[in-house]
Amino acid sequence: MSTAKLDFIRNYELEIQKEWEETKAFEVDAPENQSNEDAPKYMASFPYPYMNGRLHIGHVFTITKAEFMCQYQRLKGKRVLFPFGFHCTGMPIKVCADKLKNEMAQFGCPPVFPVEETNDDEEKPAAVAKKDDPLAFKSKKSKVQAKTGGAKYQWQIMQSMAIPDEEIPKFADSAYWLNYFPPHCKTDLQTIGMGIDWRRSFITTDVNQYYDSFVRWQFETLRELGKVKYGKRYSIWSTTDNQQCADHERASGEGVQPNNFTLIKLEVLEPVPECLKEVAATGKKIYLVPGTVRPETMYGQTNCWILPTGKYGAFQMKNGEVFICTERSARNMSYQELTEETGKYPCLAKFTGDQLLGAALKAPLAVNKVVYVLPMLSIDENKGTGVVTSVPSDAPDDYAALHDLKQKEPLRKKFGIKDEWVLPFEVVPIIDIPGYSNTAAVKAYQDLNIKSQNDRALLDQAKDVCYLRGFTEGIMIVGEHAGKKVQDVKKAIKDQLIESGQACNYSEPTTPVISRSGDECVVALTDQWYINYGEDDPQWRDQVNKTLESMELFSAETKKRFETAVGWLNQWACSRSFGLGTKLPWDEQFLIESLSDSTIYMAFYTIAHLLHQDFNGKVVGPAGIAATQMTRAVWDHILLDKPYPEGCEISKDTLAVLKREFNYWYPLDLRVSGIDLVQNHLTFFLYNHAAIFAEKMQPKGIRANGFVQLNGAKMSKSSGNFLTLFDAVQQFSADGTRIALADAGDGIEDANFVDKTALTSLFKVHTQVQWVQEMIDMKDKLYSGESNRLQDVIFISEMNRAINKADEAYAKSQFREALHTCFFDLLNVRDHYKLAMAKNENMSCELIFKYIETQAILLFPIIPHFSQKVFSMIGKGSILAARWPESSNIDYLALRTNDYLKSTVSEARNKVGIFLKNKNKGGKTDAKAEKATIYITKNFPKWKQTVLLYLQTIYNDANKSFTKDVSAILEDLKKMDELKPQLSNIMAFVRMIEGELKTEGKQALDTSMPFDEQEIISQNMEYICRALELTSVECQEIADTTGMKGALPAPGKPTFLIQ
Q1: H helices, E strands: number in the chain
Q2: Domains in the chain, ordered, with CATH?
Q3: Would you state the pLDDT for residue 116?
């Protein structure tokens, strides 16, 4: 296939990029004598990518969301800053470098690896986080797998990145990674035309001493504020590395956090089951230990659930206690000070769950003095302890399972369950949800018409309702805390159970986590430095919630996820002992982990260009400040507005420049990231800003998006479905790639980058550039008179309507909508303008060039090279100096008339197509349509007018819907005597109007048109004939359609007869 069009576009893209670089187009400083109120600004950032590979289309999908918004804000007249950094903190680079070193030592250089048989087994289904975890997400193929394509050896992974064999040995030194990938990242982003101020870029870790100083200041400040503490805390732990395993140090399980439970000790009473008699004979107390996240509900226990086929053990714990649970959970417990020796969990007996059925238990807090072990078939052995306590008043799953056992005698007989273990136990009301129920699970079960414990989807829905409302609205009605809100006493009840020895803390990974060293991680309770997020510092959490209230989050679902994350997030281990990074200032045996050193670095961007001139911070910047001079007092002065430090080695005037930069650019206007980071990084970002900076410096907006697929499938090198940014630009051009990225999607659902879209967009861009040149060449032939003809008025109005729609879409970060409005829709507007002109008329020169300039400006955020190319062609100079066009002179009646004409032609064209298809049956190909009769009517039948007038009274313009549901609407309409003969037709009519509202809005409720349809059709007969390729068109009005059958015309919706 010829690459002429691609080559043409790439040539001018490269020329434009060179000009931007030479003119330092995107380098911007704070003005000397103006605040950000006097000279409006906009600063956006993207979480700096990890420097262990080249950028792929998934990275740039999110990056473009920030850059699109920045360039839109530039058009709105703001001074714009989009900086970009490179993340190198953590274990991955160090681990990969060490692996490479070991491979060369073992297999030679270049290495000769042993040949192994391939495994053709299908990839296992992705794990799904459980519904009762409010931060749950679907764990997709790990980033490591996606990037490496399943390559086993590090040398092979480097080869998959197109790194020459002779260069690979250099990567055995971790420092080489820090110097290799950041420049490639910069180059890749430049090739797609990113408007980034590269002066402010830096790498993390102590290699850059300026950034290292900044992070040390951050943590010293947090510690002084009481936010960083030392003590026993839970964290994901690699037993092989013997240290915390942070996100970037995992082969799989990114984003997985410790899932904290309260283990309830259900004491086994006499007579003990046969499988436990030997253990009981030793005099040790035996407990079944279900894990719960709702200890406040323990008053309502009616039984305990076990998986009959599950594999369980009796494991020796501290203080002579024996816990009945799965071996997997016992392994976790052994790292949480629940066993005598770390990592050791002696098993005293093994058995299956059915051997425990019918065991009598003493349940803490329960109204029932004795409860029994019963079967539940849906228990997951890989979650919790494999033992589940039952509170059917507030847990829908428990109610469903207990209800099944009570109602189904054959089910009881199947497992040998005696009636006295089940039938006497009734639901115990323990929590009242005002206005809902004091047995929420029962109500949800009944409201959703759940039939059994197998109705998984409905039970999950019921659980969401019960758990959320129970926590946020529930009031205790039993126990010593009766009358108090659940959220106020939840922790107190948990603490009471633990202090009395009736429960203990337990934690495990939400889903399996595999470290890069290959071991399955546990959750360990270890002495470590941690940041005290969550319930132990409610004032801090309240500050974060206050910030969220005023933030622009662009999505109700994003806000909901933040509220959940803030509500459930707790202490976070912030130190580790291996990898790259910044040392804890007061305890240098530890490094600050990779999510904790990346929460407020946006503030560092504001002054980085003055401190150093290279990524590594080795070349001193324009301010002439050495890294050692950046003391804590200096940072306080710059970022916290504290007094100028006594004895400071940096002049006050120099620091005033740094302060000016920070105070001008902060607060951050927009943070763009993947939705998966809400549960950690983005919430940490809010917490740290709330702790350190003044209220006026809190972030103003966060935009989250989903993952991106490639051609409808997950990106994966192993499947060949993978695309780097570099390759995308080579194949589709910068602007072709950018269009496909904008078109991929905007919500938090997974987006889809489509190769075909990128390719066809490349061709459209090329065609549009050629058309602009054609207009320049034939400028003298275009109409030069006053632009007041009907089609001129419509064209002007269409352009202005597009300006308004695009403005709204960009402001809401709906970039796909903006793209379609500015590119595809405006192309159609232009084509219609040309086609609708009479034979002896031509398009207006004034309007065509206004259109060319307007479209170039509107498209600049998405396809800047095209916009600059067009601006250069028409002599407008730099697109960077352009401002958002003003809209005026919108003739809405003319627009509606034109919309009517276009829809009429479109519908008639469909009818012509059907006519020709029927005529050409049997192999014929010569049939032609010659004439069309268009039937119109000015009025609806009387009964439809009555319905429409009623519907106008309950229409909500904000969401284009009715304020009542269809059943309520029908009840109202049935009361109208004049409608009774039409009751059988009303439902269908209302449903039709309801559908039309979504596309037409309030216009769908009009009882007549604001223009004469027959006149519009008559005036445009020539255009209609030309568009439909017919010899003649006739228009006939039907005064009254009452009693007529078949397809009937309605106001604004004609019907057609094709001949």
Answers
A1: 34, 34
A2: 258-509 (3.90.740.10), 897-939+1012-1058 (3.30.2320)
A3: 66
